[in-house]
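Hello K.,

You asked for the raw outputs rather than the summary table, so here they are, unedited. I folded two proteins back to back in the same session to keep the settings identical. This is the first:
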Amino acid sequence: MGASFYDPRDAALHELRPASPPCVGVALAAGAGARERAVAAALSDALTFLGLEPVAGREIVVGAEAPEPGAVWLKPAPLSGSVPDASGLIARGFAPADMNFYLRATHYRRPMAFSWEALVSARAERLRLAAIAREHAAVGQEPSASALAGYLHRLSEALRRDLDMPEAVACVRDGLRPGALSPGSRAALLQRTLALLRIDNV
């Protein structure tokens, strides 16, 4: 099974069905900014999660400029405002991972206006998820395969449907609600999504 991506050249969703073994590459167009880099990283992680290994081969190009014919094109909406670089983030007490999580939590085709307040909220949620992951790291209880399957299916479908990272984050949030899953299933959900959401980088 492949994944569908919106192509701005004809304003339609197109399904990408890689050959077997499933291999697809992710490339950045020239002049890529912070948002393009974050989208490319999220796409690589999503393809890995889905089993569509991001290796050199068929390319998905992330950037503002249309690629050569034959490549899939992801064109992120603009990121406006005074966007800090890594040193600017560190000077204000943030980690690059906070910015990465912030940029992943909004759909790549939705315009964004950077704000420090929103970054504070993103950092708080990332650290909360990281703390929950640490708490569950030593849980020995077996997960419920049937209970976990629904969340993993919802998560996979969100990623296959034009890289809907906000829905993927919402799915993890829902799975962590009190009573939603057993401790073993929560631990398994977090283990599967740590790399996808990049919440484990302090």
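The second followed immediately with the same parameters:
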Amino acid sequence: MFGSNKNPTHAYAELARESDIRAASPHRLIILLFEGAQSAIAVARVHAVEGHFAERGSHITKAIDIIANGLKASLDIQAGGELAGRLAALYDYMVSRLLWANMKNDVPTLDEVQSLLGEIHDAWRQINPDKQQQR
């Protein structure tokens, strides 16, 4: 009747996420990117197990987009030096593994990328940018 088929709970969650993004610091934005990629892979995994190939592919594509156009694109190779270069290579590896997982419906490969993202995500959560600025 009003042109929206969205579930009100889904619409509220989407609005809250958009507000979080607008107010987020650069550090928080990276955390949100990790959370988004990990969430997309988790949903892709469920669809892979259940044989929902189109949905699996859609969520893997979302994870690839977040990793390549969010996490990797946010790296400052000049300022970050060797570490940034290694992260860029790792993000490229993750993207290639996700493409493989999508092509072969390979759940263990999804788990591998999820684990890699989890390790880097944990490291990012331990960074306290406010404490860094006080030095």
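The CA atoms of residues 63 and 105 lie 15 Å apart.

Happy to rerun anything if the numbers look odd on your end.

Regards,
P.
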